[in-house]
Specification:
about 200 residues, alpha/beta, Rossmann fold, two-stranded antiparallel sheet, binds 5-O-phosphono-beta-D-ribofuranosylamine
Amino acid sequence: MSKTGVNLAVFASGFGSNFSAIVKAVKQNKIKAKSVILVCDKPGALVIKRAQKAKIRVILIRREDFTSRADFEEAIIQRLRNYKINLIALAGFMRILSASFVKLYRNRIMNIHPSLLPDFKGACAIKDAFNHQAASTGVTVHFVDEEVDSGPIILQQEVAITKKDTLVSLEKKIHSVEHKLYPEAIRLFISGKLRLKDGRVCRS
Ligand code: GRF
């Protein structure tokens, strides 16, 4: 992958703080992406306002407008082709992509998850770690495979859970780590420093 050859699509459904962190890194030239678009499935999502403010193109595709997931994904794929997208960053995208979608963009779809995978998979990872009284949790950026919250790990960072932490303070700590880790993982991808060997990510 050449340094200037990445057209990035961020997929998000909600708040969009990771989207904003990625866009900020692009604007600061820390991420050398040729172009960035937002793919969103929720018309009222705050991430759309963030994109409009940052002058990022928004592709809104609602699942409800299609009779099947295959048709919904086909519509997304058509748009990705139009914009020559070759890297997808899932950032709070609340839909599970099909195996055929994953196959089409194999090792070109990243996801961020608020735990040290494989611990605490699922939609309530921060709360689950907190309720479990774990000594620490963390953040994982990984390539997406056919399973949920699974695939070769690109970067992980541990976050301590102290006795003083509340769920809110832990969420804050996790999100501030996310906002550094995701841009860094994308930067590594674009600079060609990520290699896959035996299903694992190596850095050169
Ligand atoms: C993040 O915690 C991310 O790890 C998870 O969904 C959340 C999205 O947050 N996959 P935001 O919308 O980027 O603020």
